[in-house]
Amino acid sequence: MSLTGQAKIAGVAGWPVGHSLSPRLHGYWIAEYKLDAAYIPLPIRPEDFAPAVALLPKLGLRGLNVTIPHKEAAFALATEQDEAAKATGAVNTLIFEDGRIVGKNTDVAGVIGMLHDAGIATLAGKHALVYGAGGAARAVVLALTKLQAAQIFIANRTQSKAQDLAKRFSIPGSAVVAVSEGTELGNVDVLINTTSVGMIGKDAGENASLPALRFDAQPGSAYAIDIVYRPLETPFLSKHRKAGLKIVDGLGMLLHQAVPAFKAWFGIEPKVTPALRAHMIEALKD
Ligand code: ATR
C-alpha cells in the first residue's frame, strides 16, 4: 500500500542499525493491518542522537525504537518514563506526543509475552535462575518478579554486578539473591540466559562460559530460556534440550517487546502469530 499525506511514521534509531530486525517486524504488521504507516531504520551517530530526538517530533514522527548505543541517552532525554523504564534505567521505546517524550522499557512486557507463549502465566512458588547481570538481565528480573517468582538466583561472571542487581530488585514476595560458582541451589524451575554467551559474532573463546552451578531441574517440566535469537538454538538451549528441559528461544521476546510500541504509535494492538514468527525466521537464515 502506498503512503498518503496522513501516514503515521516511526522508526528505529541505532548506530549501526543495518542489522536491526525491527523494520521487518513492524513492516509485517503494517502490511497485515493495511495501515497508512511506515517504520524506517534511522542510522544516527551517538553525537547526533540528542539533536535528532529534538527534531524528529517536529518532522511528525510518532516515536522511535532505540537500540545500541542510544538506550541510556534515550532514558535521559525522555521527559517522562514508564514504571519499567524507571525500574531498569533503560528505555527502548520513545513516544512523541504533544511535546512530550515518553520513554518506555517494553523489554519487560517482551519477557512476559514470551513466557506466556511458552505456557507460563505465573511463577508463583517457582524458582528461577538468571545468568547475567547487564541491561537485559534487569528487564528479565523485573518480569520474573511481576510473575511472582518465589526465588530468583542471579549468576554472573562479575559477581559484584550480580549483587547490585539483586539489591535493586529485592522486593517483598520475591527473594532475589546473587549466587557464585559452585553454589548448590536445590530445585530450579526456569533457567534464563541473558548474557551474550552463545550469540553469533561474539567471542566464543575460553572465557565465554556461564558460571557453573549445582541445581536440579526436572526434565519435562523445567524450562531453559535464552533471550539470544542468533542462533535460534544457542548452545545453552541445545545443552538443556538434550537434558530433557523445555526450551524457549529469544525470538518471542523480540516479537512481544514490539507490541506495546506498535500500539502506541499506530493505534492497533498487533498479534504475535506463527506466521509472523516464520517471517522473522526467514531473515535469521541470512
Ligand atoms: P545487555 O544489555 O545485553 O544485557 P550488557 O549490559 O553488556 O548487555 O551485559 C552483558 C552480560 O553478559 C553481562 O552479564 C556479562 O557479564 P559481566 O557482567 O561479567 O561482564 C555477560 N557476558 C558477556 N560476555 C561474557 C563472557 N564471555 N562470559 C561470561 N559472561 C559474559
Summarize the structure.
Helices cover 35% and strands 22% of the residues.
Tell me about this structure.
The chain is an alpha/beta fold and 286 residues long. It has two domains: 8-105 and 255-284, Leucine Dehydrogenase, chain A, domain 1 (Rossmann fold, 3-Layer(aba) Sandwich), CATH 3.40.50.10860; 109-249, Rossmann fold. 35% of the residues lie in helices and 22% in strands. It has ten helices and 14 strands. The chain has helices at residues 22-32, 49-55, 71-77, 83-88, 107-117, 135-146, 159-169, 235-242, 251-266, 274-284; strands spanning 8-14, 37-43, 63-66, 80-81, 93-97, 100-104, 127-131, 151-155, 175-179, 184-187, 190-193, 214-216, 223-226, 246-248. A six-stranded mixed β-sheet has the order 2-1-3-5-6-4, with helices on both faces. α1 runs antiparallel to α10 (274-284) and α5 crosses α6. It is globular and about 60 Å long. The chain starts with 7 loop residues before the first strand and ends with a helix. The model has no long low-confidence stretch (mean pLDDT 95). Bound molecules: 2'-monophosphoadenosine-5'-diphosphate. Residues 132-137, 156-158, 161, 194-197, 203, 207-208 line the site of 2'-monophosphoadenosine-5'-diphosphate (ATR).
Please supply descriptive tags for the structure shown above.
Rossmann fold; binds 2'-monophosphoadenosine-5'-diphosphate; alpha/beta; six-stranded mixed beta sheet; 22% strand; 10 helices
| CATH level 1 name of the largest domain | Alpha Beta
Kindly state the number of beta strands: 14
Supply the CATH architecture of the largest domain.
3-Layer(aba) Sandwich
Query: What is the number of helical segments per DSSP (H or I, 4+ residues)?
Result: 10
Strand order of the largest sheet: 2-1-3-5-6-4
Cα end-to-end separation: 26 Å
In CATH, the topology of the largest domain is named Rossmann fold
**Overall outline:** globular
Ligand kinds: 2'-monophosphoadenosine-5'-diphosphate
- H/E element sequence: EHEHEHEHEEHEHEHEEEEEHEHH
Give the helix/strand class.
alpha/beta
Write down the domain tally.
2
Identify low-pLDDT runs.
none
Instruction: Please indicate the percent range of residues in DSSP E strands (runs of 2 or more).
Output: 15-25%
Average pLDDT score: 95
Instruction: Tell me the radius of gyration.
Output: 19 Å
- Please outline the major beta sheet: 6 strands, mixed
Corresponding CATH superfamily of the largest domain: NAD(P)-binding Rossmann-like Domain
Q: Percent range for helical residues?
A: 25-40%
